[in-house]
Design goal:
Helices cover about 55% and strands about 15% of the residues. With about 210 residues, it is of the alpha/beta class. It has one domain: P-loop containing nucleotide triphosphate hydrolases (Rossmann fold, 3-Layer(aba) Sandwich). The longest helix has 25 residues, at about 65-90.
Length: about 210
Amino acid sequence: MGQGRFITFEGIDGCGKTTQLRILAEALRTAGREVVETVEPGGTETGRQIRKILLDPANTAIHPRTELLLYFASRAQNVEEVIRPAIHAGKLVLCDRFTDSTLAYQGAGRGLDSETVHDLDRVACRGLKPDRTVLIDIDIETSMARAKKRNQRTGPDESRIDAEGAAFHTSVRQRYLELAADESGRFVVIDGRAPVETVAERILEALAADV
């Protein structure tokens, strides 16, 4: 049995992290690695129901603290049902968003204090932290344009966070970059404005020692 690893993908909306996670997962499976893909919020049946509440643009009355608790409720279920068992079985887990997203979106974006986020993380995740985190960074203009194009293609059902203004997304991006600077040994920052294939190559190269 190989060593289980936990790698997360982060970034502002439209950065391409979901696409890049899938590309990496396919490449690793082709190379013979056992890979589990999951997402936050979501990843389990319970999490998918919570995701509908969180991302439905009709739910304009959700308070920031309610939002925070719902994200961690989804995460706690994902950790217990999917992520920990896969790591213990020696598999490589790739997760689309984790607690760094909460620090960026609910912390910086919503103005909630980071200590509260860390306290909830200790309850929900019980000390689980990513081994490596890929932060795909793009500018705000590109982010908002890509998110709009995506929602036109897939529909508005998950557009509640996308609909926030430029100031919100700027705060989120800045917090991500601060997190990456504070934990440079865990984070790898990739320019998401490059062609998809180039971004994928850079991610695989940066994670070569981890996957």
